[in-house]
Amino acid sequence: MKKKHKLLASWSYEKKPVEKGYNNRTLYVNLSDNEIKEKPVSEEMKEKFTGGKGFDLKLLWDAVDENTGWDDPENEINIAAGPIGGITQYPGTGKAIVTTVSPTTGIPIDSNVGGYFGPYLKFSGFDALEVQGKAEKDVIVCIDGDEGKVEIFEAPEEEINSHILAEQLIEEFADSDDPYDKKAVATVSAGKGSENAWIGCLNFGLYDIPRRGVRLKQAGRGGTGTVFRDKKIKALVCKYSDLSGMDNNPADPEKVRKVGQKMQKEVIEQDPKQKRMRRVGTTHIVPIMNEYDLLPTRNFKYGQIEGVENCGEEAYEKMFDQEHPDGCWFGCTIACAHTIEEFELKTGPYKGEKVRVDGPEYETIAGVGPNCGITDGEIIAEMNFYCDTYGLDTISFGTLTAFVMDCWENGILDEEKTGGLKFEWGNWKASLEMMHQMAKGEGFGTIAGKGILYMKEYFAENYGADREFLDNIGMECKGLEYSQYMSKESIAQQGGYNFAIKGPQHDEAWLIFMDQVQNRIPTYEDKAEALYYFPLWRTWFSLHGLCKLPWNDVEPADNDETDDPAKVEEHVENYREIFNAITGKNIDKKEQMLQIERVYNFQRLLSLKLGKGQRKDDYGCPRSITPVTVEEYKSREERYDKQLKEEYDIDPSGMSVEEKLEVTIEKRMEKYNRLMDETYARKGWTNDGVPKVETLKKIGLDIPEIIEFAKKHQ
Q1: For a surface tag, which of 124, 143, 153, 589 has the fewest beta carbons within 10 Å of its beta carbon?
Q2: Over 80: is that where the pLDDT of 509 sits?
C-alpha cells in the first residue's frame, strides 16, 4: 500500500532538542496548497497561553473569523501537548489536546486524549501541530522526528476504520517488524462514521509491546473526527525513536524525579485501597452513581436501573485483560486504560471476528448502556468497539440514542420514520444498527448522526413534533450532548454542565458528588466559588499535556483531614513543582491559577467570536435542571413534594401533579438564574456572561486585539 502513495509535498527542518519543556516553534500544514512551514513561539505566547490547549486556541483565533464554519477550509485541527507533557517520571503525562471548530456547536471544542502522538510530536520538534485547508483526495501527513522531515502523501488504498488502519500504518512506517520499532510510530485516524456523522471522534493509535498489537485512545467530543475526514485526512503519523525520560530537558531533573517517585509510590500504595483504577479503571463509578440515584437512565429521566452489576466494575473486572500492564503513556502507574482481548463481535461488518476492545470507560457504559435501558456488559463492549473504529463519540452516541428512544416512546418516531428500526428502551439491536448506518451513510442513522440539536429541528419541521417538548427532553447545550451524570438534583452540577464553555462535558466541572452527596457547598456563594475554581483548575491539565486522574482519583492517605479535601492541594502543589522544575520558572499558587484563568477566559471570548458565549447560551436543556414531565415528577413525587414545602414554602396538598410540576419548574429556574448571577460575578464576567475588560487586564490577558474585541460586548 505504501508503494501506492503519491508524494505531494516534503519539507525538511532542523532538529533541535526541547528546551525546558518547549520547542519554541509550531508546525503549520495547509492541505489546500500543501504548504508546510514552522511558526515561532514567542515568549509572550508562552506567558499568555502556556501551551497545550492554550496554544491550540491561540492558533485557532488567528485562523478564523466570525463567519468561519466547521467545514470551511479556514477551520483547523490543532494538536498540542504542553510543557510538562511527555515526562515519564509522573503518572498521566502523555496527553495531547485536540481543538477545532465543532460541527455540532459551531464553537471551539477541545478534547484531551492519551496515546503517544502528543509527546512524539513534541519531541520531534514542535509545540503544536496546526492543520488547515482541505485536500482533494485522501492524504496522510507524516512527521518524521528521526529524519527531521514532514511529508504529505496521497494514500488511496489504506482502510478507513481505525482498528485496521492503525495497524496498517504502523506496519508501513516502522523501520522493521521489531516491536520497539513499531512502538516508535504513533497515529491519528478517524473512521467511516466520521465521514457521515457530525459526532466523529479521533483515534490516537499506539503500539502496545506486551500485547503485540495496536491500541486506540479517543479524542471524543464535539466532532473532531468529522472535521478530520472533511479535510480528507486519512491519518496523521508521527515517528520518534529515541525516547528517553529526559527528552523535555528539564531545568531541574532531580526535582522532577523526586516529585515523581513520591507520586508513583502513593499510587502503588493507595490505589488498591481506594478506587482500584489499576484493575477496573473508571468502571467503579457505575455502581456508585446507581446507588446515589445519579446514573442517567432512560434519557436522564431517572437515576437508577436494575441489573447494574452486569455493566459495572464487577462485570468488567472479569472481562478486562489483567495479564498485561496497562496505560496510555510510559511511566503511568495508574494504568487505567484497560482492554478486553479476543472479544467476538455479534453484529456489523466484522461479525464473528475476535478483536481488542479499548475500554469501556464509565461515560461509555452509562451512555450507551443504562441511559438507553441496556445493562448487558458485552453489548456495551461491542458498541464501544464499533464507535471507536468508526470514529464516533461514544458519549454523544449514547445521549442521542437515548433521545431517539424517548421520542419513540412519546410517539414522535415510528417504524416508517426510522426505516423499520424499533427504538424501545433496551433494544440494543436497533441501537447498533443505527450505528452501522452512520458508518455506511444510510437510513435513519444519517439523521441521528447529526446530533440532538439537528434532530430537534428536523423532527419539528418534518414530523410536526412539538419543539418545546423536544427542547425539554433533548439533552444538549450549545449543540453538544451531555455527558453521563444526572444533574437535575444538583444545582452546582447544572452550572458545571451548562456554564461549560465548549458545552456540557464533565471534564470542566464535576461537582455532583461534592454538592449532592457530600453537601460540601451548601450556599450559593459556595457553589459559585466551586464553579469558579474547579473549571479553572481542570483546565490546567489540558495546558500541560496531563491526565486528570492522578490529581483526584488517587488521593494522599491523609487527604480527608485537610481543610478542603476536594481540591487535593498536595497534588496541586506537585504539579506546580514539576512545572517549575521543567521550565526553570518559580511560579507560586497565584500565578499557577492565573496561567489557567487567562486561557479559560480567552476560550470564552473565542466562542463568543464564533457566535456562542453569552448568558442565553448557558441555559441548556431544561431536563438538566428540573423534571419536565409528569412521569418524572411522579417517579420522585415524595421528594419533590417535600422540596416544595421545605424550600419554597408551598403546600402541595390539593395540587395536581401538573400544577406541582409547573411550580417546580418555575422555582428551579429562579434558583438557576440566581446561581448564574453569582457565578458570573465570581468569574469577573458581565451579567451577560462576557469577561469584563478589567478582568482581562487583571489576569494579564491584556493583548490589544483581545481587549478591543471584549469591549464590543461589554
Answers
A1: 589
A2: no
